[in-house]
Amino acid sequence: MKHSTRRDTLRFIATAAAATCAAAVWPLRAQTTTAPRLVTVGGAITEVVYALGVEAQLVGTDTTSLYPAAALKTPKVGYLRTLSAEGLLSLRPDAVIGTTEAGPPVVLDQLRSAGVKVELVVADHSWAEVQRKIAAVGRGAARETQARALQARLDADWAVVQNEVAQRTARKPRVLFILAHGASPQVAGQKTAADAMIRFAGGINVMSGFDGYRPMTAEAMAAAAPDVILTSTQGIEAQGGIDKFWARPELALTPAFKRRALVHMDALELIGFGPRLPGTVRVLAQKLAAA
């Protein structure tokens, strides 16, 4: 369930992108002393490229790469789980950087056989994940010094944010994350990006005792008794707006419904775990406290 739900999330994000990769397959160019040509697979990985200021080296991105706006104009190599070796090689990359969700494996093996450096970052919903993404892009772009400088700045901001959240004396809000991108909303349990974000922002995930995602049921809503509902802005849009979101009968059984306590943020920003994470946690903490 966990993997299929994460896949659905990324597919929903990907619908906002509209571009195709070049049709012709070019011979893989020989390694030179010029700056490496990069293809990034994963929205957060692409964000790191722009944060490092090496977007001139970016020759392609996947369809989940929607931020910043300039990323929408890059050639697209398709959805990160259904990549094509032909499409990727047509862009003549020196390196393909993504997460372990990228695939299929046979395509990645074909890239390696063609001499393309492939680096995949393990996602574990931690600050270390962000650090690994920055280091991977630094290596792939041959900009390791810049990557270390960026990491130092972000580490400092992360420490400040953690201290800000820890200093809050108010009662920790009981939060329920709902993935509402489809017709059957699901709730986030442990070992999910949403669970990590709730904890980082000083809240308590009311869904415990299971990993991944489960269907949203009336019984679960009544038992969980969340103070605040957290979801993505895209999920609100998929449900037809805030009023229709609240119209779901399961939500009427929660304290959050009585107060209309709802927080929503952009999906990639909220659960992408990219270089915006410190600022995102700061904003989320403020929103949860005010909800």
SSE diagram, text form:
Blueprint: H1 2-14, E1 38-41, H2 43-52, E2 58-61, H3 85-89, E3 95-99, H4 105-113, E4 117-121, H5 127-140, H6 144-166, E5 174-179, E6 186-188, H7 193-200, E7 204-205, E8 213-215, H8 218-224, E9 228-232, H9 233-238, H10 242-246, H11 255-259, E10 262-265, H12 267-271, H13 277-290
Parallel strand pairs: 1-2, 1-3, 3-4, 5-7, 5-9, 9-10
Antiparallel strand pairs: 5-6, 6-8
Keywords: Signal
Protein name: ABC transporter substrate-binding protein
Organism: Rhodoferax koreensis
Question: Overview of this structure, please?
Answer:
The protein has 291 residues and is of the alpha/beta class. It has two domains: 2-162, Rossmann fold, CATH 3.40.50.1980; 174-290, Rossmann fold. It contains 13 helices and ten strands. Residues 12-32 have low confidence and may be disordered. This is ABC transporter substrate-binding protein. Residues 1-30 form the signal peptide. Keywords: Signal. Residues 37-291 form the Fe/B12 periplasmic-binding domain.
Question: Which features would summarize this protein structure in a list?
Answer:
Rossmann fold, 14% strand, globular, 6-stranded mixed beta sheet, 13 helices, 4-stranded parallel beta sheet, 291 residues, alpha/beta
Say what oligomer this is: single chain
What is the straight-line distance between the termini? 30 Å
CATH topology of the largest domain: Rossmann fold
Cα-atom radius of gyration: 20 Å
The CATH class of the largest domain turns out to be Alpha Beta
Sheet/helix structural class: alpha/beta
Q: What number of structural domains do the residues give?
A: 2
Chain-averaged pLDDT: 90
* Run of helices and strands: HEHEHEHEHHEEHEEHEHHHEHH
**Corresponding CATH architecture of the largest domain:** 3-Layer(aba) Sandwich
Shape: globular
Mind telling me the CATH superfamily name of the largest domain?
A: Nitrogenase molybdenum iron protein domain
Count the E strands.
10
Count every helix, treating DSSP H or I runs of 4 or more residues as helices: 13
